[in-house]
Design brief:
Chain A: It is an enzyme of class 2 (transferase). Chain A: It catalyses: UMP + diphosphate = 5-phospho-alpha-D-ribose 1-diphosphate + uracil. Chain A: This is Bifunctional protein PyrR. Chain A: Belongs to the purine/pyrimidine phosphoribosyltransferase family. PyrR subfamily. The structure holds 3 protein chains of 3 kinds. Chain A is of the alpha/beta class. Chain A has one domain: Rossmann fold (3-Layer(aba) Sandwich). Helices cover about 30% and strands about 25% of the residues of chain A. Chain A has helices at about 5-25, 40-55, 105-120, 160-165, and strands spanning about 1-5, 30-35, 60-65, 95-105, 125-130, 145-150, 155-160, 170-175. In chain A, helix 3 links the parallel strand 4 (about 95-105) and strand 5. The relative contact order of chain B is 0.17. Chain B is built from 11 helices and 9 strands. Chain B has 2 domains: about 5-135 and about 295-310, Aspartate/ornithine carbamoyltransferase (Rossmann fold, 3-Layer(aba) Sandwich), CATH 3.40.50; about 135-290, Aspartate/ornithine carbamoyltransferase (Rossmann fold), CATH 3.40.50.1370. Chain B has a 5-stranded parallel β-sheet. Chain C is an alpha/beta fold. Chain C has 2 domains: about 5-50 and about 375-390 and about 405-445, Urease, subunit C, domain 1 (Roll), CATH 2.30.40; about 50-370, Alpha-Beta Barrel (TIM Barrel), CATH 3.20.20. Chain C has helices spanning about 70-80, 100-110, 135-140, 160-165, 195-200, 205-225, 235-245, 255-260, 285-295, 330-340, 345-360, 430-445; strands at about 5-10, 15-25, 25-30, 40-45, 50, 55-60, 85-90, 115-120, 145-150, 175, 190, 205, 225-230, 250-255, 300, 380-390, 405-415, 420-425, 425-430. In chain C, strand 6 (about 55-60), helix 1 and strand 7 (about 85-90) form a beta-alpha-beta unit. In chain C, helix 4 (about 160-165) packs across helix 6 (about 205-225). The radius of gyration of chain C is 21 Å and the shape is globular. The two termini of chain C are about 20 Å apart. Chains in contact: A-B, B-C. The interface of B and C includes residues 85, 117 and 206 of B.
Chain lengths: ~180, ~325, ~450
């Protein structure tokens, strides 16, 4: 197992993403950050804090559970669901930034786009991820990436966040087995 | 979870997990688009050997909101009432590719027989069997209590220390049985109030206090009073002299209702016999949860169907 | 195969080891015997020789319910279980409530050849509990009926029960009562107690049995009649019977093998194989029944063999039929519950499963001791054979046995009926072989 991002790297990556979001959006107007449970929610909250601090206005964060929209439910044991929490008065006309920890096949994001459509009509939807490890199975790409991490399918990427796991780190393991 | 047959064998963690999923389902019920794609392509059969429009439409709404295909199979007036066996019916449903069967049956244990016979692979949900159990009713009752007590902070919580008084025909009530087991599992304290004729002959093993005096039970200021329906046919069985005496002795009338703390929830699984087991004032009060119970029923049944049918098949609990 | 048999080295009920010679339909000799010319030798080393078993309570289902059992298949099951005589209950269609029906039953039994079939007559017309059946005509018929029962239904009307008890005194008959208070057991599905409350199944309270037994022993005392109580199932019933016997009332009682072994906990899975009337009771009841059988309060074991077609048991509990097949398993269950537990010896088994039931039913030629001069009705049991009780052990038409998949001790190796083996080497013989053997035997005795 080796560590690819340490706490300071992680902080730097999020700060860079926050700047990029504000730059692309030309400010903080209408921004809503929705994290995909579980670690995406914590990342969205962190990002929202950083974006708010830079822009000087409150940018809301929430949670978007995609479990019930997944296309692989019947192939796995039953998954626990998580609350969906959309801040304020919904997503109609807002720019939604989906936040997740790892972008891999793209299936989670496909499910998230469906879930989002049932919540309302966003003006635009963007995607921010901490790690992009490749191996996409859908025509989906991230707008904001903390770290591109080309990996083999045999490897496991572990994202640790203080809110969930007690520490901040991204590690990779199992490649040479 | 492979089947949902009783609350007796439901662990605390499983029960709370189901109630938590129901919270997420309830949130979906509050938005404009109430439908989820979750069970697309799955077929749910409502197999009702007893008339119960309320329970059937609640399950039907739950299955449809999860995008399952729903087939309603009312056994009354069909080949089943003409002597077709449960086995043949089950094999018909199997041939039709049923993924889930919601069964309401007048014989205690019939859902258990359906689930364990090997006649069918489908997940089985007990929607009320004889005088045995009605697990989704107890789950929606617990869900309703938890929401009233804890609101948005309900997730993950049990009913520790909640004092519940259940009043009425305990002997014949599947709702009472399912509630007794589930409430015990969730940490509530249950008192059963009934005329002695309507209590099973030996309830020494039940996690509940038996009380014949309703006023004494209510004087303790319980958190919940759950009134059970008195079936008309009990009048003939010499269980009590007549409905007037029953209402006077075991009914939640205006006077008894007025004595209750304002925080006490008044529950009823429906349909109510107004003026018999419950007076209109109690039924229509702010303390009454009757309409919430109906709405919550859909969320809880969505959760049950989700947990039974969304995962890969052949999974054991 | 010759028609005389020399059984070598059997263990008698008394525990003695002896050879037994069967010749001309009788037990010719018992002791240390020399080879007999022409006799087939049966090695009975380690086997227990019991008088042929007699079942006072069998449902043969014919006429009327041949999809469940016939006299032929039912007596084949009897032979497989070591029985040489069965009393056939009256709840056939038509009901055995006339001389014609009981004589038909008798003839079917004679034709089958596996065991003596002694018909039981109904107490009331059509088992309806309203009007006495022609008890005298049945008693006087070729079937010589002595046991009368509405089994399946209780003779509930106290006046009718009193009259029946009185009437059968004229021909030394006995009323075998199915003790079940009908009002207390409306819709009853299982023993009433903590478990019935949990399972939501309507209860069959012990008091519904005990109150009828109490009434009936008092009636029997009052009119000085003989009473037999079918399938006693509760500890309270045992107390009532014990009290009645202490008072000198002429009452006998039976217990079924399943009530000696199985308890109501089995109902928890709603498997209709365990649905029976009277229902399976609590462990306390089982213990009391075993003790009562051991001390003589309960006189006999009777199977209540009740065959049902598969569809009558492959259904929800409420819809399932009551009853279990029991002929093939009875001796094994008695061995497990009474002998292996140390409560009884083999002489007691001979008494409760052969001598006493024959005496209660006034059936001659059965239940005689294993001794020279007795009728050649004999069962050889291997008590050391312990095996899974599988469907291969069932020899009747129905398979509704509660013991399938259980391990039971003992196996019937041979059954001799009127000197002819109906079971040999553990296998039930074909009916045409048995018929041929009887023919040769008749020829031999005519010549002799």
């Amino acid at each position: 197992m080796r560590t690819v991002l340490q706490q300071a790297d992680l902080e730097r990556a999020l700060t860079r993403i926050a700047h990029e979001i504000l730059e692309a959006n030309r400010g903080a107007d209408d921004l809503v950050l929705l994290g995909i449970p579980t670690r995406g929610v914590a990342l969205a909250e962190r990002l929202a804090r950083i974006v708010s601090r830079i822009a000087g206005v409150d940018v809301p964060a929430g949670a978007l559970d995609v479990t019930m929209y997944r296309d692989d439910l019947g192939r796995n044991p039953v998954r626990a669901t998580h609350p969906t929490e959309v801040p304020g008065d919904g997503i109609d006309g807002r720019v939604v930034v989906l936040v997740d920890d790892v972008l891999y096949s793209g299936r989670t994001i496909r499910a998230a786009l469906d879930a989002l459509a049932d919540l309302g009509r966003a003006r635009a939807v963007r995607l921010a991820v901490l790690v992009d490890r490749g191996h996409r199975e859908f025509p989906i790409r991230a707008d904001y990436v903390g770290k591109n991490l080309p990996s083999s399918t045999r490897e496991r990427i572990n994202v640790h966040l203080a809110e969930v796991d007690g520490d901040d780190a991204v590690t990779i393991e199992g490649g040479d087995e | 979870m492979r089947h949902l047959l009783s609350t007796r064998d439901l662990s605390r963690d499983d029960a709370i997990a189901l109630l938590d999923v129901a919270e997420d389902m309830a949130a979906v019920q509050e938005r404009e688009v109430k439908k989820l794609p979750t069970l697309r392509g799955r077929t749910v059969v409502n197999l009702f050997f007893e008339d119960s429009t309320r329970t059937r439409i609640s399950f039907e709404a739950a299955a449809k909101r999860l995008s399952a295909d729903v087939i309603n199979f009312s056994a009354k007036g069909s080949s089943v009432s003409k002597g077709e066996s449960l086995k043949d019916t089950a094999q018909t449903l199997q041939a039709m590719g049923a993924d889930g069967v919601v069964i309401r049956h007048p014989s205690s244990g019939a859902p258990f027989t359906l689930a364990t016979s090997g006649w069918i692979d489908a997940g089985v949900v007990n929607a009320g069997d004889g005088t045995h159990e009605h697990p989704t009713q107890a789950l929606l009752d617990a869900f309703t209590m938890r929401r009233r007590l804890h609101g948005a902070a309900s997730r993950g919580r049990d009913l520790d220390g909640v004092r519940v008084v259940v009043v009425g025909d305990i002997l014949h009530s599947r709702v009472a049985r399912s509630n007794v087991w589930l409430l015990e599992t969730l940490g509530a304290e249950v008192t059963l109030v009934a005329p002695p004729t309507l209590v099973p002959v030996d309830v020494s093993g039940w996690p509940a206090v038996i009380e014949y005096d309703l006023d004494r039970a209510l004087a303790a200021g319980p958190d919940v009073v759950m009134m059970l329906r008195i079936q008309a046919e009990r009048m003939q069985g010499a269980f009590f002299p007549n409905s007037r005496e029953y209402a006077r002795t075991w009914g939640l009338d205006d006077h008894r209702f007025a004595q209750l703390p304002e925080t006490t929830m008044v529950m009823h699984p429906g349909p109510m016999n107004r003026g018999l087991e419950i007076a209109a004032r109690a039924a229509d009060s702010m303390q009454s949860t009757v309409r919430e119970q109906v709405a919550n029923g859909v969320s809880v049944r969505m959760a049950a169907l989700y947990l039974l049918l969304s995962g890969e098949r052949g999974e054991t609990p | 195969m010759s028609e005389s048999f020399l059984i070598r080295g059997a263990t008698l009920p008394s525990g003695e080891r002896a050879d037994i010679l069967l010749e001309g339909g009788r037990i010719a000799d018992v002791g240390t015997l020399a080879d007999a010319a022409g006799a087939t030798v049966v090695d009975a080393d380690g086997l227990v020789a019991l008088p042929g078993l007699v079942d006072l309570h069998t449902h043969l289902r014919e006429p009327g319910y041949e999809q469940s059992e016939t006299v032929l298949t039912g007596t084949r099951a009897a032979a497989a279980g070591g029985f040489t005589a069965v009393f056939a209950m009256a709840n056939t269609f038509p009901v055995a409530d006339t001389a014609g029906v009981v004589e038909q039953e008798l003839s079917l039994g004679e034709a089958a050849g596996y065991a003596t079939v002694q018909p039981i007559g109904a107490v009331t017309v059509g088992l309806k509990g309203e009007q006495l059946a022609e008890l005298g005509a049945m008693a006087a018929s070729r079937a010589r009926v002595r046991v009368f029962s509405d089994d399946g239904f209780c003779v509930f009307d106290p006046l009718l029960m009193r009259r029946a008890l009185e009437y059968v005194k004229a021909f030394d008959g006995v009323i075998a009562q199915h003790a079940q208070e009908p009002r207390l057991t409306q819709g009853a599905q299982m023993n009433e107690g903590a478990l019935s409350g949990e399972l939501g199944l309507a209860g069959w309270p012990a008091v519904a049995e005990e109150s009828i037994i109490a009434r009936d022993v008092l009636l029997a005392e009052h009119v000085g009649s003989r009473l037999h109580v079918c399938h006693v199932s509760t500890a309270g019933s045992v107390e009532v019977v014990r009290w009645a016997k202490a008072r000198g009332i002429d009452v006998t009682a039976e217990v079924t093998p399943h009530h000696l072994l199985l308890t109501e906990e089995l109902v928890a899975g709603y498997d209709p194989r365990y649905k029976v009337n009277p229902p399976l009771r609590r462990q306390e009841d089982v213990d009391a029944l075993r003790a009562a059988l051991a001390d003589g309060t309960i006189d006999i074991v009777a199977t209540d063999h009740a065959p049902h077609p598969v569809e009558a048991k492959e259904c929800e509990w409420d819809a399932a039929a009551n009853g279990m097949v029991g002929l093939e398993s009875a001796l094994s269950v008695v061995q497990q519950t009474m002998v292996d537990s140390g409560l009884m010896g083999w002489a007691d088994v001979a008494r409760v499963l052969s001598a006493t039931p024959a005496r209660i039913g006034r059936l001659s030629g059965h239940g005689e001791p294993v001794a020279a001069g007795s009728a050649a009705e004999l069962t050889l049991l291997d008590p050391t054979a312990t095996a899974d009780f599988g469907v291969d052990r069932l020899a009747g038409r129905s398979v509704n046995s509660p013991y399938l998949g259980r391990t039971l001790p003992g196996r019937v190796v041979a059954t001799f009926h009127r000197g002819v083996p109906t079971v040999l080497d553990g296998e039930v013989r074909a009916s045409d072989e048995i018929a041929a053997a009887f023919a040769r035997l008749a020829e031999g005795s005519a010549r002799g």
